[in-house]
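User: My advisor asked me to double-check a structure prediction for NADP-dependent oxidoreductase before group meeting. I don't want to rely on an old file, so could you generate it fresh from this sequence?
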Amino acid sequence: MKAFVADRYERKSALRLADMPVPEMRDDEVLIEVHAAGVNQLDFKLRDGEFKLILPYRLPLILGHDVAGVVVKAGPRARKFKLGDEVYARVDDFRIGSFAEFVPVKESSLALKPRGLTMEEAASIPLVGLTAWQALVERAQLQQGQKVFIQAGSGGVGTFAIQLAKHLGASVATTTSAANVALVKSLGADVVVDYKTQDFEEVLRGYDLVLNSQDGKTLDKSLRVLKRGGKLISISGPPDPEFGAQINAPGFVRLVMRMLSAGVRRKARRRGLGYAFLFMKANGAQLHEIARLIEEGTIRPVIDKVFPFESTNEALAYVESGRAKGKVVIKVK
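Assistant: Sure, here is a fresh prediction for NADP-dependent oxidoreductase from the sequence you gave:
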Protein backbone atom coordinates (compact mmCIF):
# COMPACT_ATOMS: atom_id res chain seq x y z
CA MET A 1 0.00 0.00 0.00
CA LYS A 2 1.03 3.64 -0.42
CA ALA A 3 1.79 5.50 2.81
CA PHE A 4 3.52 8.64 4.08
CA VAL A 5 6.34 7.72 6.44
CA ALA A 6 8.51 9.61 8.94
CA ASP A 7 12.01 8.12 8.85
CA ARG A 8 13.44 10.22 11.71
CA TYR A 9 12.46 12.76 14.33
CA GLU A 10 13.23 16.13 12.78
CA ARG A 11 11.43 19.48 12.80
CA LYS A 12 9.67 20.40 9.54
CA SER A 13 11.07 17.32 7.78
CA ALA A 14 9.09 15.96 4.82
CA LEU A 15 7.36 12.62 5.07
CA ARG A 16 8.40 10.01 2.50
CA LEU A 17 5.83 8.47 0.17
CA ALA A 18 6.59 4.77 0.28
CA ASP A 19 5.26 1.34 -0.62
CA MET A 20 4.57 -0.35 2.71
CA PRO A 21 3.07 -3.72 3.63
CA VAL A 22 -0.56 -3.65 4.76
CA PRO A 23 -0.34 -3.81 8.59
CA GLU A 24 -1.07 -7.15 10.21
CA MET A 25 -4.35 -7.17 12.10
CA ARG A 26 -4.89 -8.23 15.68
CA ASP A 27 -7.86 -10.38 16.68
CA ASP A 28 -9.88 -7.44 18.04
CA GLU A 29 -9.20 -5.11 15.10
CA VAL A 30 -10.83 -4.34 11.78
CA LEU A 31 -8.98 -3.24 8.67
CA ILE A 32 -10.14 0.08 7.23
CA GLU A 33 -9.71 1.11 3.63
CA VAL A 34 -8.87 4.77 4.17
CA HIS A 35 -10.99 7.25 2.23
CA ALA A 36 -9.97 10.37 4.17
CA ALA A 37 -7.62 11.27 7.02
CA GLY A 38 -7.75 14.31 9.29
CA VAL A 39 -4.53 16.24 9.96
CA ASN A 40 -3.77 17.38 13.51
CA GLN A 41 -1.08 19.26 15.41
CA LEU A 42 -0.27 15.95 17.09
CA ASP A 43 0.97 14.63 13.73
CA PHE A 44 3.71 17.20 13.22
CA LYS A 45 4.58 17.23 16.92
CA LEU A 46 5.16 13.46 16.76
CA ARG A 47 7.30 13.94 13.65
CA ASP A 48 9.30 16.60 15.49
CA GLY A 49 9.95 14.24 18.40
CA GLU A 50 8.02 16.28 20.99
CA PHE A 51 6.26 13.20 22.39
CA LYS A 52 9.19 10.76 22.47
CA LEU A 53 8.92 10.35 26.25
CA ILE A 54 5.15 9.82 26.24
CA LEU A 55 4.85 7.88 22.97
CA PRO A 56 8.12 6.07 22.20
CA TYR A 57 7.35 4.97 18.63
CA ARG A 58 9.70 2.91 16.54
CA LEU A 59 10.79 4.49 13.27
CA PRO A 60 10.03 4.47 10.39
CA LEU A 61 6.50 5.49 11.31
CA ILE A 62 3.35 6.06 9.25
CA LEU A 63 1.64 9.15 10.66
CA GLY A 64 -2.07 9.97 10.88
CA HIS A 65 -4.56 9.70 13.75
CA ASP A 66 -7.99 10.43 12.18
CA VAL A 67 -9.65 8.13 9.66
CA ALA A 68 -12.90 7.73 7.78
CA GLY A 69 -13.32 4.78 5.47
CA VAL A 70 -14.80 1.35 4.81
CA VAL A 71 -14.38 -1.93 6.70
CA VAL A 72 -12.68 -4.46 4.40
CA LYS A 73 -11.65 -7.14 6.91
CA ALA A 74 -12.40 -8.09 10.52
CA GLY A 75 -10.46 -10.05 13.12
CA PRO A 76 -12.02 -13.13 14.74
CA ARG A 77 -12.94 -11.21 17.93
CA ALA A 78 -14.26 -8.14 16.06
CA ARG A 79 -17.98 -8.74 15.48
CA LYS A 80 -19.66 -5.33 15.80
CA PHE A 81 -18.94 -4.15 12.25
CA LYS A 82 -19.50 -5.88 8.94
CA LEU A 83 -17.64 -5.63 5.66
CA GLY A 84 -18.65 -2.52 3.75
CA ASP A 85 -19.61 -0.49 6.84
CA GLU A 86 -18.67 3.20 6.58
CA VAL A 87 -16.85 4.05 9.80
CA TYR A 88 -14.71 6.71 11.47
CA ALA A 89 -12.18 6.66 14.30
CA ARG A 90 -9.28 8.21 16.09
CA VAL A 91 -6.88 5.29 15.61
CA ASP A 92 -5.15 3.82 18.64
CA ASP A 93 -1.84 4.96 20.08
CA PHE A 94 1.01 2.76 18.83
CA ARG A 95 -1.26 1.67 15.94
CA ILE A 96 -1.48 5.03 14.18
CA GLY A 97 -1.05 5.32 10.43
CA SER A 98 -4.05 6.81 8.61
CA PHE A 99 -1.83 8.64 6.09
CA ALA A 100 -2.02 5.41 4.13
CA GLU A 101 -4.39 3.34 2.01
CA PHE A 102 -5.22 0.92 4.85
CA VAL A 103 -5.10 1.11 8.64
CA PRO A 104 -6.14 -1.39 11.36
CA VAL A 105 -8.33 -0.04 14.18
CA LYS A 106 -9.41 -1.69 17.42
CA GLU A 107 -13.13 -2.44 17.23
CA SER A 108 -13.78 -0.58 20.51
CA SER A 109 -12.24 2.58 19.04
CA LEU A 110 -14.52 2.58 15.98
CA ALA A 111 -17.99 3.98 15.26
CA LEU A 112 -20.28 4.15 12.26
CA LYS A 113 -19.72 7.31 10.23
CA PRO A 114 -22.34 10.00 10.97
CA ARG A 115 -25.11 9.82 8.38
CA GLY A 116 -25.15 12.72 5.98
CA LEU A 117 -21.43 13.50 6.24
CA THR A 118 -18.91 13.01 3.46
CA MET A 119 -15.85 10.92 4.22
CA GLU A 120 -13.80 14.11 4.38
CA GLU A 121 -16.19 15.69 6.89
CA ALA A 122 -16.23 12.54 9.00
CA ALA A 123 -12.42 12.35 9.03
CA SER A 124 -12.26 15.88 10.42
CA ILE A 125 -14.09 14.91 13.61
CA PRO A 126 -12.54 12.12 15.74
CA LEU A 127 -9.47 13.60 17.45
CA VAL A 128 -10.89 17.08 18.03
CA GLY A 129 -14.33 15.73 18.90
CA LEU A 130 -12.97 13.26 21.44
CA THR A 131 -10.64 15.92 22.89
CA ALA A 132 -13.58 18.27 23.46
CA TRP A 133 -15.82 15.48 24.79
CA GLN A 134 -13.21 14.13 27.21
CA ALA A 135 -12.39 17.63 28.46
CA LEU A 136 -15.89 19.10 28.78
CA VAL A 137 -18.08 16.05 29.47
CA GLU A 138 -15.83 13.38 31.00
CA ARG A 139 -13.35 15.48 33.00
CA ALA A 140 -15.07 18.81 33.72
CA GLN A 141 -18.68 17.56 33.73
CA LEU A 142 -19.67 20.97 32.38
CA GLN A 143 -23.13 22.00 33.54
CA GLN A 144 -25.85 24.29 32.23
CA GLY A 145 -25.25 27.90 33.26
CA GLN A 146 -21.49 27.50 33.83
CA LYS A 147 -18.94 29.68 32.08
CA VAL A 148 -16.15 28.15 29.97
CA PHE A 149 -13.21 29.83 28.24
CA ILE A 150 -12.14 27.87 25.14
CA GLN A 151 -8.91 29.19 23.65
CA ALA A 152 -8.26 29.42 19.91
CA GLY A 153 -11.91 29.18 18.94
CA SER A 154 -11.30 29.02 15.19
CA GLY A 155 -8.94 26.04 15.44
CA GLY A 156 -9.83 22.37 15.11
CA VAL A 157 -10.52 21.69 18.80
CA GLY A 158 -11.98 25.15 19.34
CA THR A 159 -14.62 24.97 16.61
CA PHE A 160 -15.89 21.65 17.98
CA ALA A 161 -15.60 22.52 21.68
CA ILE A 162 -17.60 25.76 21.32
CA GLN A 163 -20.51 23.85 19.79
CA LEU A 164 -20.37 21.08 22.40
CA ALA A 165 -20.21 23.57 25.29
CA LYS A 166 -23.26 25.42 23.95
CA HIS A 167 -25.12 22.11 23.63
CA LEU A 168 -24.32 21.47 27.30
CA GLY A 169 -25.85 24.85 28.20
CA ALA A 170 -22.67 26.74 29.08
CA SER A 171 -21.76 30.35 28.34
CA VAL A 172 -18.69 30.34 26.07
CA ALA A 173 -15.82 32.79 25.70
CA THR A 174 -13.07 32.33 23.16
CA THR A 175 -10.08 33.99 21.53
CA THR A 176 -9.52 34.47 17.82
CA SER A 177 -8.45 37.13 15.33
CA ALA A 178 -10.85 39.76 13.96
CA ALA A 179 -11.09 37.83 10.67
CA ASN A 180 -12.66 34.83 12.46
CA VAL A 181 -15.10 36.58 14.81
CA ALA A 182 -18.11 35.82 12.60
CA LEU A 183 -17.13 32.13 12.42
CA VAL A 184 -16.84 31.57 16.18
CA LYS A 185 -20.04 33.53 16.84
CA SER A 186 -21.87 31.36 14.31
CA LEU A 187 -20.73 28.32 16.32
CA GLY A 188 -22.15 29.78 19.52
CA ALA A 189 -19.42 31.85 21.19
CA ASP A 190 -20.97 34.43 23.54
CA VAL A 191 -17.81 36.46 24.27
CA VAL A 192 -15.10 36.83 21.65
CA VAL A 193 -11.68 38.30 22.50
CA ASP A 194 -9.47 39.51 19.63
CA TYR A 195 -6.12 38.20 20.81
CA LYS A 196 -4.25 40.68 18.60
CA THR A 197 -5.76 43.78 20.22
CA GLN A 198 -7.11 42.57 23.59
CA ASP A 199 -5.76 40.75 26.64
CA PHE A 200 -8.26 38.06 27.64
CA GLU A 201 -7.13 38.38 31.27
CA GLU A 202 -8.52 41.94 31.34
CA VAL A 203 -11.85 40.92 29.74
CA LEU A 204 -12.78 37.60 31.39
CA ARG A 205 -13.59 37.01 35.07
CA GLY A 206 -15.23 34.35 37.21
CA TYR A 207 -15.04 31.39 34.83
CA ASP A 208 -15.73 27.82 35.91
CA LEU A 209 -13.51 26.14 33.33
CA VAL A 210 -10.65 26.95 30.95
CA LEU A 211 -9.70 24.64 28.07
CA ASN A 212 -6.08 25.62 27.48
CA SER A 213 -4.40 24.87 24.17
CA GLN A 214 -1.68 27.52 24.08
CA ASP A 215 1.73 28.22 25.62
CA GLY A 216 2.95 28.52 29.20
CA LYS A 217 2.38 32.28 29.39
CA THR A 218 -1.28 31.80 28.40
CA LEU A 219 -1.55 28.97 30.93
CA ASP A 220 -0.53 31.26 33.79
CA LYS A 221 -2.92 34.00 32.70
CA SER A 222 -5.74 31.46 32.39
CA LEU A 223 -5.53 30.66 36.10
CA ARG A 224 -6.42 34.28 36.84
CA VAL A 225 -9.74 34.24 34.93
CA LEU A 226 -11.07 31.27 36.94
CA LYS A 227 -13.18 31.58 40.05
CA ARG A 228 -12.29 29.64 43.19
CA GLY A 229 -13.16 25.97 42.68
CA GLY A 230 -12.70 26.30 38.92
CA LYS A 231 -10.76 23.92 36.72
CA LEU A 232 -8.04 24.39 34.14
CA ILE A 233 -7.72 21.53 31.66
CA SER A 234 -4.73 21.80 29.34
CA ILE A 235 -4.29 19.86 26.11
CA SER A 236 -0.92 21.50 25.39
CA GLY A 237 0.87 20.61 28.62
CA PRO A 238 2.60 20.40 30.89
CA PRO A 239 1.73 16.76 31.68
CA ASP A 240 1.01 16.06 35.34
CA PRO A 241 1.74 13.08 37.64
CA GLU A 242 -1.81 11.74 37.23
CA PHE A 243 -1.26 11.45 33.49
CA GLY A 244 2.02 9.65 34.10
CA ALA A 245 0.16 7.10 36.21
CA GLN A 246 -2.57 6.72 33.56
CA ILE A 247 -0.08 5.72 30.89
CA ASN A 248 2.02 3.65 33.31
CA ALA A 249 5.09 5.74 32.46
CA PRO A 250 8.53 4.69 33.74
CA GLY A 251 9.65 6.27 37.02
CA PHE A 252 12.03 8.79 35.46
CA VAL A 253 9.33 9.95 33.00
CA ARG A 254 6.88 10.45 35.89
CA LEU A 255 9.53 12.47 37.70
CA VAL A 256 10.00 14.69 34.63
CA MET A 257 6.23 15.22 34.42
CA ARG A 258 6.06 16.08 38.11
CA MET A 259 8.81 18.66 37.68
CA LEU A 260 7.38 20.16 34.47
CA SER A 261 3.94 20.68 36.01
CA ALA A 262 5.04 21.62 39.54
CA GLY A 263 4.76 25.37 38.93
CA VAL A 264 1.24 25.43 37.49
CA ARG A 265 -0.04 22.88 40.02
CA ARG A 266 1.33 25.00 42.89
CA LYS A 267 -0.24 28.20 41.51
CA ALA A 268 -3.56 26.40 41.00
CA ARG A 269 -3.60 25.10 44.59
CA ARG A 270 -2.92 28.57 45.99
CA ARG A 271 -5.98 29.86 44.14
CA GLY A 272 -8.19 26.94 45.08
CA LEU A 273 -8.26 25.66 41.49
CA GLY A 274 -7.90 22.28 39.82
CA TYR A 275 -5.30 21.58 37.11
CA ALA A 276 -5.24 18.57 34.78
CA PHE A 277 -3.42 17.64 31.59
CA LEU A 278 -5.51 15.84 28.97
CA PHE A 279 -4.09 13.60 26.26
CA MET A 280 -7.19 12.29 24.55
CA LYS A 281 -7.83 8.58 24.07
CA ALA A 282 -9.48 6.65 21.26
CA ASN A 283 -13.08 5.78 22.20
CA GLY A 284 -15.69 4.33 19.87
CA ALA A 285 -18.60 4.70 22.32
CA GLN A 286 -17.96 8.44 22.63
CA LEU A 287 -17.69 8.75 18.84
CA HIS A 288 -21.11 7.09 18.64
CA GLU A 289 -22.52 9.82 20.92
CA ILE A 290 -20.78 12.49 18.86
CA ALA A 291 -22.26 11.02 15.66
CA ARG A 292 -25.72 11.31 17.20
CA LEU A 293 -25.18 15.02 17.91
CA ILE A 294 -23.97 15.58 14.35
CA GLU A 295 -26.94 13.73 12.86
CA GLU A 296 -29.30 15.84 14.98
CA GLY A 297 -27.66 19.01 13.62
CA THR A 298 -26.33 20.05 17.03
CA ILE A 299 -22.71 20.03 15.85
CA ARG A 300 -21.35 20.59 12.37
CA PRO A 301 -17.83 19.93 11.06
CA VAL A 302 -15.72 22.94 10.14
CA ILE A 303 -13.21 22.24 7.37
CA ASP A 304 -10.72 24.73 5.97
CA LYS A 305 -9.06 22.73 3.17
CA VAL A 306 -9.04 19.25 1.67
CA PHE A 307 -5.72 18.16 0.14
CA PRO A 308 -5.17 15.24 -2.24
CA PHE A 309 -3.24 12.28 -0.85
CA GLU A 310 -0.10 13.12 -2.80
CA SER A 311 -0.06 16.56 -1.11
CA THR A 312 0.08 15.18 2.44
CA ASN A 313 3.26 17.12 3.23
CA GLU A 314 1.60 20.35 2.10
CA ALA A 315 -1.40 19.58 4.32
CA LEU A 316 0.88 19.01 7.31
CA ALA A 317 2.74 22.27 6.62
CA TYR A 318 -0.56 24.17 6.40
CA VAL A 319 -1.68 22.88 9.81
CA GLU A 320 1.73 23.70 11.24
CA SER A 321 1.44 27.28 9.96
CA GLY A 322 -1.44 27.89 12.37
CA ARG A 323 -3.60 29.53 9.70
CA ALA A 324 -6.25 26.83 9.40
CA LYS A 325 -9.85 27.63 10.35
CA GLY A 326 -11.27 24.39 11.65
CA LYS A 327 -9.78 21.21 10.24
CA VAL A 328 -7.54 20.16 7.36
CA VAL A 329 -8.23 16.81 5.69
CA ILE A 330 -6.43 14.54 3.23
CA LYS A 331 -8.57 12.80 0.60
CA VAL A 332 -6.96 9.36 0.21
CA LYS A 333 -9.47 7.53 -2.00
